[in-house]
UniProtKB/TrEMBL annotation:
Pfam family name, one: Inositol_P
Cofactor: Mg(2+)
Annotated binding of Mg(2+) 1, by residue: E76, D92, I94, D95
Lineage of source species: Bacteria, Pseudomonadati, Pseudomonadota, Alphaproteobacteria, Rhodobacterales
CDD domains in UniProt: Bacterial_IMPase_like_1 (cd01641)
Family: Belongs to the inositol monophosphatase superfamily.
This protein's UniProt keywords: Hydrolase, Magnesium, Metal-binding
Origin species: Gemmobacter lutimaris
Residues that bind Mg(2+) 2: D220
Identification of the protein by name: Inositol monophosphatase family protein
Heme found in the keyword field: no
GO biological process assignments: L-histidine biosynthetic process
Length: 267
């Protein structure tokens, strides 16, 4: 949908903001609530879901039912819903539920809209507690926060020994994937863990250089890809291919840093 009209672009952006507001209102009463509990979606490892996750996705779907009922939806908690427009909303109501449970404000609401080929056209990373909202695509690359609005712009080229790399878990993925990540991290200046989707926002805002993850789903990556690409960054799989459906993700501030990191991940 490369010929999208300005009116449709404006409508999609408006809908995304309305969904983000609805999710904020659904989530914040539960954050840092001493009575909050979580179920696990898996039996082998703890993969938490809370009432806040479900309430937020339900609230966002209600917005879509009212304003864009013709669009398809792919959500982490409630699955797929067919549509007729060729557009798909990809939703992760709380990316970083483990951080949410621990009271850490590094989780976020992820909202993206993708075309017929599931390539993200626009994405948003919203952190309700801090009050920061990052968005990119459809002509935008901007954030809003306590210090006011600013344009998103990823960092320029620098050597790996000057780079900051982030990942959610030190284990990253399989033993082989973990070894590849640590091979890269050993060449970087600083490695930090546990930021979930907030790491992608920091990359788009120009504060870090690399994010490396594995085992991701489409709802984990669509919004970050749109935001980072709009800010001038590069996001691919570990083979250099598009990563719109998830898997192993390498996000970099610029093509030069991406190329250097890709070589080490596959070295």
């Amino acid at each position: 949908m490369t010929d999208m009209s300005p009116d449709l672009s404006a409508e999609l952006i408006s809908v995304a903001h309305e969904m983000a507001e609805a999710a904020r209102h659904a989530i914040l009463p539960h954050f840092r609530s001493l009575g909050l509990t979580a179920d696990s979606k898996e039996t082998v490892r703890f993969d938490p879901v809370t009432v806040a996750d479900r309430a937020a996705e339900g609230a966002m779907r209600a917005v879509l039912a009212h304003r864009r009922p013709q669009d398809a939806i792919l959500g982490e908690e409630m699955g797929r819903q067919a549509g007729s427009s060729g557009l798909t909303w990809v939703l992760d109501p709380i990316d970083g539920t483990r951080a949410f449970l621990a009271g850490m404000p590094t989780w976020g609401v992820l909202i993206a809209v993708a075309d017929e080929g599931m390539r993200p056209l626009y994405g948003m990373i919203d952190q309700p507690y801090i009050g920061e909202r990052f968005e990119g695509g459809l002509g935008l690359a901007r954030m809003q926060g306590p210090l006011g609005p600013r344009t998103l712009a990823a960092r320029g080229a620098r050597s790996l020994d000057q780079c900051i790399v982030m990942s959610t878990f030190p284990e990253v993925g399989s033993a082989e994937e973990g070894a590849a990540f640590h091979r890269l991290a050993a060449r970087c200046r600083l490695t930090r863990y546990g930021a979930d989707c907030y790491a992608y926002a920091l990359l788009a805002a120009g504060h870090i250089d690399l994010v490396v993850e594995a085992g991701l789903q489409a709802y984990d990556v669509q919004a970050p890809i749109a935001v980072i690409e709009a800010a001038g960054g590069v996001v691919t799989s570990w083979t250099g291919a598009r990563a719109d459906t998830g898997g192993r993700l390498l996000a970099a501030s610029c093509p030069e840093v991406h190329a250097a990191a890709l070589a080490l991940l596959n070295g």
